[in-house]
Structures are given as C-alpha cells and as structure tokens.
Amino acid sequence: MTQRVLLFSDDKTFNSIINDLFEDSEVFYFVLIEDFKSNKRKFQLNEDDIPMFFESHDNSFNNFKDFLTKQFFKGAFIVFNSNKEELSQEHPKALSLDIPLNLNEFFHTLKNIQIQKEAVEYHDIKFKKLFLNMTGRIIGDSKNNTKLTDKEAKILWHLVKEKGQTVSQKFLLNKVWGYRDDIETKTLTTHIYTIRKKLNIFENIFSIENSEDGYFIKFKPI
Questions:
Q1: DSSP per-residue letters across the chain
Q2: What is the pLDDT of residues 121-180, one digit of tens each?
Q3: Which of 90, 109, 120 is nearest to 50 (CA)?
Q4: How far apart are alpha carbons 84 and 94 in whole angstroms?
Q5: pLDDT in tens, 35-89
Q6: What is the CATH topology of the domain spanning 125-219?
Q7: Any idea which architecture 3-117 has in CATH?
Q8: Which of 26, 38, 48, 168 could bridge across to 214 with cysteines, CB 3.0–4.6 Å?
C-alpha cells in the first residue's frame, strides 16, 4: 500500500523540488496543497497520512497547527526549517528537517513514520482449542504448550488472523522485520521451518502450508 504524503506550502521553488523527489516513487503518493490558507477548509486528512509543512512566512505555522487540531490529527508530521528544540518541546510528534534538505535524512524520516503507522498491536488470540499468548510468546492448550521466539510468534499471529487465507512473504517480512533492505526471503523460510517443528504437537489441529507466494494456516477437521 502506498503512503499518502502531503506538502502544505505556497513556496513554488520548494514545491517543485519536493514534487520531483516523489516522481517515480512506488512507496509514497505525493499530494501538494498550495494556497494553504484558502484550501485548508476543503481538505480532509486521513489518520494514515504524513503531513509536511514548509513555513515561508510568519504565523503560517500557527494556521497549520490549528488545521491539524481541527482535523483531530494525532500522528507524526514534518516541518521544514524550524527550530528543532523548540518544536520538539511544543509538539512531541513534530519532526523538524533543515533546509537545504538532506535527502537520506528526509526519506529515512518518512520511512520511520511509515513503519510506526503500520505497526501492529499484537494481542492474544484463541482459535480452535488453542491460545496464542503474545506476551509470553506461548502457544498451547490445556495439556500442551510450546515456547516461541518473538518473530515466530508474530509470524504465527498474522497467519492465524487471516483464518486460512494466504499471507504473502512480502507482507510478513514487512510486518515482522520492518522495511529493511538487508532482510531476505530465506530468513522467513528458516523461521517457518522452525515454527513447523515446534508445532508438530498440534498437527491434528492445524498446519502451516505453502502457497505460490506465501503461507496459510490449514485447519484440520475436528
């Protein structure tokens, strides 16, 4: 899923530079909001959006803050060329970036916000006769249980949540390991192999099966 990134700015030069950065992006969908003062009442933010603001004249940031408040937006946002220390004290979820822009820092910041927005709140699950305890990372029933590692528990959690539907390898890698370039598919394959060995004691209840591009839970008839 592409993440919507919105720039609120009326500086045409800066807008052109930022627009060019997102031209070929397959991860982020860029939206430019010019003439912010006139358009702020017409525009609706979503909770998954990443707003960015470039302050080109005095008091314009106050308008932007009011806009976020009225939109009930509580997520992280980026402000360009602001006093970092002062901004962090007043707005803990505001991230300040300097101008001229460091491209590595810019995209690293966007990726971190994206990961935070896509973070999963793992909770305990009961299915069939089993329970999956995410706090203790234990799967079992009234007679048997086995301990899982943190990543094994998270992989299994996603598979169980989909109730027999295929979960792609890419999805599992992104959700469990985050958007990291150094993680390979064989890492997931190794974890699936280990999980299967640990779950042999529950083979009469379910199994983890392969599909063309991922894995799914196959529940056995009771």
A1: -PEEEEEE---HHHHHHHHHHTTT-SSEEEEEE-SHHHHTTT----TT-EEEEE--STTHHHHHHHHHHHTT--S-EEEES--HHHHHHH-TTEEEE-SS--HHHHHHHHHHHHHHHT------EEETTEEEETTTTEEE-SS-EEE--HHHHHHHHHHHHTTT--EEHHHHIIIII-S-TT--HHHHHHHHHHHHHHGGGGTTTEEEEE-SSEEEEEEPP-
A2: 789 999 988 999 999 999 999 889 999 999 999 999 999 998 889 999 988 987 888 655
A3: 109
A4: 9
A5: 766 665 667 888 789 999 997 766 578 888 888 888 888 888 999 976 666 676 6
A6: Arc Repressor Mutant, subunit A (1.10.10)
A7: 3-Layer(aba) Sandwich (3.40)
A8: 168
Amino acid identity at 97:
L
Domain residue ranges of the chain, discontinuous segments joined by +: 3-117, 125-219
Q: Find out whether 146 and 193 touch, Cβ atoms under 8 Å.
A: no
pLDDT of residue 218: 94
pTM of the full predicted structure? 0.56
CA–CA separation, 32 and 18 (whole Å): 9
